[in-house]
Structures are given as C-alpha cells and as structure tokens.
Design a protein that fits this description.
It contains 14 helices and 22 strands. With 469 residues, it is of the alpha+beta class. The protein folds into 3 domains: 226 residues, 3-Layer(aba) Sandwich (Rossmann fold); 83 residues, Uridine Diphospho-n-acetylenolpyruvylglucosamine Reductase, domain 3, CATH 3.30.465; 120 residues, Phenylalanyl-trna Synthetase, Chain B, domain 3 (Phenylalanyl-tRNA Synthetase, Chain B, domain 3). A 6-stranded mixed β-sheet has the order 3-2-1-4-6-5, sandwiched between helices. Strand 20 and strand 21 form a beta hairpin. Helix 2 packs across helix 7 and helix 5 crosses helix 8. It is elongated and about 100 Å long. 32% of the residues are buried.
Length: 469
C-alpha cells in the first residue's frame, strides 16, 4: 500500500462490509478481542473500537502471556494503555506453566491460548472472540498442511468462524494492517516468537513463501483461493454425509451398513468423521493412518461380522446390518423389573402391557403372546439377557437366546436391550421375537394372560408365535 494514502477510512469501510456480509457480529453484541500488541491484533482492536459506537458493539480485550519471552509483561502494559485510551476493558491471562513451558510446540501453545480466551470471554459475558488472523496467516496455514499431508478439509485453512471465535481480517494482508497502524500512530510490537526457527510456520513465513512470491507475486492470493474452493467442496461433501442417518446411544454411534457401503469414498470419509466426532467429542480424532484403515475396511465389504481396534480404545465393528463405532470404557447396563399384575411397564425402547383377555387363535404374534393362567402367575420378572440364557423351543429341546437374537439379525449392541419375560429361572418370552413352549393356551375362548410388547413409536403386530399364543 502506498504511503501517501491514508488507509484507515478504507479499511474501516471494508471491515464493516465484511462483518455484515458474513454476519460475524450482530448489533449490540459483546465481543472479546484477542490482542498481543502486534500490528494485526492492535489494528483489529482499533478498527472494532472505531466501529463499535455506530454498530452498538461492546468490546473487551485480552492479552495472553504464554510465558515464552521476557518482553511479554511490557507488551501487555502497552496493550492495556491503548485499551484505556479507547475506553475498552482489559484483562490479562497468563498461561499455565505446565501447559506452556519453554519449548512447547505450536499446537500446545494454541490450545492453551484458546482455553484462556474462552475462560476470559465466559467471565466477561462475551458471546464472540475476535482474533486477528490475516490473509498471510491463511496462506501459511494452507502451505503448512500441504507439507504435512492433508485432504480437502485441511485445505480449507483457517475458518472464518468456529464456535464463538471469529476472524474478521482473513481478507486483509499484514502489510495493509501495518500501514494502518502507522497512519494511526499505533506503536506495535514485533513478537520475537514469530522469528523462532523451531516453529515450522515461521520457516514457511520466512523461507518458503518469499520464494513462492518470486515465482508468482500473487502466491498468497492463489493459496487463499484454493482454501475457499476447498471450503465450498467440503461443505457439499458434509451436506451429503449429514443426510446419512446416524444412530447413537449405549456409548456407540451406528450407521446402516447398506448406507455406508454404497457411499462414494469421499462421502464415506465424512460420515466416519462425523461419527467419530459425535462419539469422542469436538477436537478429538484418530490418526490419519488408522482412519484410512477403517475407511478401506468398510469399502472392502465382505464378511458380515468383523472388528477393528483403533487408537484411544475406540472399536469399529460390523454387526450384520450395522456399522458401529464404540468408545472406550462402555459398559452395557443390564436391567431387572417386576410385574405384579395387569398394567404397563416401561422397558428399554418401549413398554410391556399385561391384561386378561379371551384367547383366540391367530391373535398372537411376536409382539403379543398369551399364557395359561394356571401355569403362569404374578409376580413376573422382566430382565435383560445374561450369559447362558436358553429358551425352551416348541417341539422339544432348547436354544441359546443369544443365538436366536443373532438369527433374527438383531445387532450385538441392541441385544442387551431386548426384554426377557421370566417366571423364576424360566424364560417365557423374548419380547417381540419368540416365546417358549411353556404355558401355552390350548382352548379358544379361555381367559388368558395377554402380554404385548409396544416398541417406542410402533404399533403391535400380529402373526404367529407358536401354538397356544
């Protein structure tokens, strides 16, 4: 930018237009500005303060001392003095010495900075946190991720917003912001950490980007255009992935196998990312190498049952019609309930209804059974599956309940939720699946104990569960 022209009015107009176009801040919103005293953050604070009266914003500023260099205290005092001139409340936050020890890597420092800013915003009642990332930072980030290896999602670079964080200056260059500071006579610091060769980002800034600019003077803009194109493509892929239904509960996330196995590889990757994010929480993931092994295993198809152990204790498994991801430490809880007479009892994923009815052939089914009242009496027990459970079959003999559930294609993660109706140690009925041969009703028109399984959101179905209901 030419030195003869005052850039301040132009930057103010462009920043306001950018914020309004992307709805980064609403009128009257309270925002915390992260200010290190460098040209970028000092310019952002000054620009937002100039616009705040017109836009009704309420500002506060926070300086984060990473304990990385001795000049931090003096820099914090300069930021505080500037805040006093602007009438902006100022807070200082110091990093935890254990989390930001000298020599800490960039990622550790970034996490600690994020934590401190979020704490300060919470205390000050700020809904937004504004950081001064620039177009130069975006170009560096894209290059950094290319060097480390990335996909479309990584090429997006720094997002315009994420959670309560906003980056209003991603469109602006560092040169323009330094010119703004000079025009406004704002004394800014040059952070010595930005010249530390231990950090790969600094080497990209000082060695790689200057060479690229010699090859193409518009290299920064080209990298930013790449990030915007990647962001558009990623949004489309995520939209397709979110259309795939995910079911969660019992410490796992599941997707129908028929849906997962038919997806294009790019969409399947996003479905797995969304599943892991829902399972592990935001900001946590598994290494790319293991993620790719999981994606390839799903794409390969093949056998109906398999299991894959992933880092962090996560287990991926195919269970018949389902692909399941389970987090570590999941314990499936059993249940035991008691029925003392007619009425309804809430069970996992539905209800059991007990009543006295006249038995009619053809009215029984997997979800409705009848018992001879001379052989079955209250109280009855409704419980979950236990190891070794067996059901007495019509025609003689018995079979393991877990095998019956497997034959019915009930996924492993759902078997512990299937209610078993019992009298003493004898299983009378696998609710909604099959009854035992015990206590069948022999004659039509006889008063019998009717038990119905009413799944949540479903109606009772008829059918045949064997002679005598």
């Amino acid at each position: 930018m030419k030195t003869g022209r005052n850039p301040a009015p132009d930057l103010c107009r462009r920043l306001r237009a950018h914020i309004e176009r992307h709805t980064l801040l609403a009128r009257g919103e309270r925002v915390l500005v992260a200010c290190s005293g460098g040209a970028d953050s000092l310019a952002l604070l000054d620009l937002l303060a100039r616009l705040s009266e017109e836009m009704g914003w309420s500002l506060a500023a926070c300086y984060v001392d990473h304990r990385q260099h001795p000049r931090a205290a003096a820099a914090a005092r300069r930021v505080e003095r500037h805040c006093r001139r602007l009438g902006v409340p100022f807070v200082l936050r110091r990093a935890d010495p254990l989390r930001a020890a000298p020599g800490s890597n960039e990622e550790a420092l970034r996490r600690e900075r994020t934590r401190l800013l979020e704490e300060a915003a919470e205390e000050l009642g700020c809904r937004r946190i504004a950081t001064a990332h620039t177009r130069d930072d975006q170009a560096e980030t894209v290059l950094l991720r290319i060097l480390r290896g990335t996909g479309v999602a990584g090429l997006r670079g720094i997002p315009l917003r994420r959670g309560r964080f906003i980056r209003p200056l991603l469109w602006c260059s560092k040169d323009a912001l330094q010119a703004y500071c000079r025009s406004r006579r704002l004394a800014f610091d040059r952070d010595p950490a930005n010249r530390d060769p231990r950090f790969l980002r600094n080497r990209i800034r000082r060695e790689v980007l200057p060479r690229l600019r010699r090859l193409n003077p518009a290299a920064d803009q080209a990298l930013v255009r790449l990030s915007r194109a990647a962001a558009r493509d990623e949004r489309a892929l995520l939209q397709s992935a979110r259309a795939v239904a995910l079911a969660d509960g019992e410490g796992a996330v599941r997707v129908a196998w028929k849906d997962a196995s038919r997806l294009p590889a790019a969409v399947l990757s996003r479905v797995l990312v969304l599943s892991l994010r829902r399972l592990l929480g935001p900001g946590r993931s598994i290494p790319l190498l293991h993620f790719e092994a999981l994606r390839r295993r799903v794409c390969r198809g093949g056998e109906r049952a398999w299991s894959l152990s992933l880092p962090g204790g996560v287990t991926a498994r195919r269970e018949g019609k389902w692909l399941a991801l389970e987090r570590p430490g999941v314990k499936r809880q059993g249940f035991r309930l008691r029925a003392d007479g007619p009425g309804e009892i809430q069970v996992p994923r539905g209800r059991l209804r007990f009543s006295w009815r006249r038995f009619r052939f053809g009215r029984a089914g997997p979800a409705r059974v009848f018992f001879d009242p001379d052989q079955v009496r209250f109280p009855l027990v409704i419980r979950s599956l236990r190891p070794g459970d067996r059901l007495q079959k019509w025609g003689g003999g018995s079979r393991e309940v877990c095998r019956i559930l497997m034959d019915e294609k009930i996924p492993l993660h759902e078997r512990a939720l299937v209610p078993l109706l019992c009298q003493g140690r004898r299983i009378l009925w696998i609710a909604g699946v099959r009854r035992s041969r015990h206590a069948g009703v022999a004659a039509a028109g006889r008063l019998a104990l009717c038990v119905e399984y009413l799944p949540a959101g479903a109606n009772v179905t008829g059918g045949s569960s064997g002679p005598g209901g």
